[in-house]
Amino acid sequence: MSHHDERTFVMVKPDGVQRGLIGDIVSRFEQRGLKLVGAKLMQIDEELAHDHYGEHKDKPFFDGLVEFITSGPVFAMVWEGADATRQVRGMMGETDPADSAPGTIRGDFGLDLGHNVIHGSDHEDEGANEREIDLFFDEDELVDYDLSNAVWVYEDA
Ligand code: IDP
């Protein structure tokens, strides 16, 4: 079962929450076969925004990014499954919705780089998924359970 238990951090950004896209986005990950192990609607404060986006602190768009991500609630989630981090990134599309293929979340719901609906841990940044889960969730907010449909999702479950 161990190769089915990779966890990744995902959040619907303030634009996605305000536009009523939480349900559709959650559905996509459910339908893919991933397992939801944590979720909460929350307000990001300045400190958390700086911790989360610290790698961009010297970029010209940093102040605008912090302002946007703290401008309203986000829906933070942890999803688990085989190759979850990379698979979620594929479902999200490119950073810029304008470059994202139809069928991806950003390609279906966005047009503007600064309002790109969703965040998911970078699969090319080793350990980013675990770091971001730790930043946003306490261990007791993550639920350990078996998903009954796993035997249909995975050949070897
Ligand atoms: P990612 O969200 O696809 O991982 P990153 O390069 O980590 O992309 O950038 C983080 C976020 O910063 C993006 O999702 C986007 O909202 C914002 N961002 C990135 N580049 C720009 C830019 O050039 N202008 C405005 N916002 C940007």
UniProtKB/TrEMBL annotation:
Alphabetical GO biological process terms: CTP biosynthetic process; GTP biosynthetic process; UTP biosynthetic process
Catalysed reaction, written as an equation: a 2'-deoxyribonucleoside 5'-diphosphate + ATP = a 2'-deoxyribonucleoside 5'-triphosphate + ADP; a ribonucleoside 5'-diphosphate + ATP = a ribonucleoside 5'-triphosphate + ADP
Protein name: Nucleoside diphosphate kinase
UniProt-listed InterPro entries: NDK-like_dom, NDK-like_dom_sf, Nucleoside_diP_kinase
Subcellular location: Cytoplasm
Annotated EC: 2.7.4.6
Protein's job: Major role in the synthesis of nucleoside triphosphates other than ATP. The ATP gamma phosphate is transferred to the NDP beta phosphate via a ping-pong mechanism, using a phosphorylated active-site intermediate.
This protein's record includes keyword Glycoprotein: no
Chain segments annotated as coiled-coil in the UniProt record: none
Binding annotation for ATP: K13, F61, R89, T95, R106, N116
MF-aspect GO terms: ATP binding; metal ion binding; nucleoside diphosphate kinase activity
Any one GO cellular component localisation term in the record: cytoplasm
A Pfam family of this chain: NDK
Major subcellular site: cytoplasm
Gene from which this protein is expressed: ndk
Record-annotated Nucleoside diphosphate kinase-like domain positions: 5-144
Species classification: Archaea, Methanobacteriati, Methanobacteriota, Stenosarchaea group, Halobacteria
Source organism, top-level taxon: Archaea
NCBIfam families: PRK00668.1
Alphabetic keyword roster: ATP-binding, Cytoplasm, Kinase, Magnesium, Metal-binding, Nucleotide metabolism, Nucleotide-binding, Phosphoprotein, Transferase
Keyword Iron-sulfur: no
Family: Belongs to the NDK family.
HAMAP family per UniProt: NDP_kinase
Source organism of the structure: Natronocalculus amylovorans
Active-site residues, record numbering mapped to chain: H119
Cofactor(s), names only, from the UniProt record: Mg(2+)
